[in-house]
Fold:
Amino acid sequence: MARRFDYLADVEAFVTVVEQGTLSAAAVALGTTPSVLSRAISRLETRLGVQLLRRTTRRLNLTDAGTLYLEQSRSAFALIDDAERRIQGQEGVLTGRVRLSVPTTYGHYRLPSLLARFAQAFPQVRIELSITNRNVDLVAEGYDLAIRLGQLPDSGLVGRKLEDARLCLVAAPKYLDGAGIPRHVDELINHSCLPFVMPSSGRIAPWLFCENGEHREWMPASHVQVSDDVLGIVSLALAGLGICQTYDFIVRERIERGELVEVLEAFGGRSRPFSVIYPPHRQLPAAARALIDFLVGQG
Structure:
């Protein structure tokens, strides 16, 4: 009996070339050569009787048939991957792989200690961690989970809250020595504030306060603004450039060491939520479900 799927290596070559963007990059990823991948794609096109890629000296472009075949191939490989990982761990020891995307704030200052404890409890589980402020497409990019900030949009994704992260206002001692310590929110207009420009909207993120039991938003303004990576405002504050609002879990150790000073504590009490999200239709492998339960349980 002839093998029905002996061409799957060629399909993998096609998908990898598209995802990597060039034959050379795909060859590095797969540990082979560009000529081998080129022949694999040619074989696949011959077998299918259609052209999948338009190749020029500088770039590769998908044809309409190639776009359709890429989508279906990714879905097929995802099903195989899910089936493999779902059965892992059924012999008593949890094994498998979890692909997780997290923002820089959580990835650098919250998640490391959590993953250290998870790894101790489940040493056979491999975590593939992407730390980025880009909102990845979980389904298209093959992620199992993502940690995201803020109220979850109506995107069809399932979300479980991890925590409400407390916000605080901080500045370096040398800045406060020169500029003085603000005693009221309204006094911030006389200070150098370090605003963050939200990538999603291009607008400055308002600072959140609680005054006399009422929620208040205040819009910081400064000659220095930070975009893309919110951790940049903390770095600037540490250098004495002004005051920033950030999460307590990012700066708590620096406050305890005296590198930063919390100000306007009487107007605190505000927070923002972090949640772990995942596609509702995907059968999550046991390792991913274990990581979700672990992270939620730590909140």
User: Anything to note?
Assistant: The mean pLDDT is 86. Residues 23 and 35 are 8 Å apart (CA to CA). The longest strand covers residues 158-171.
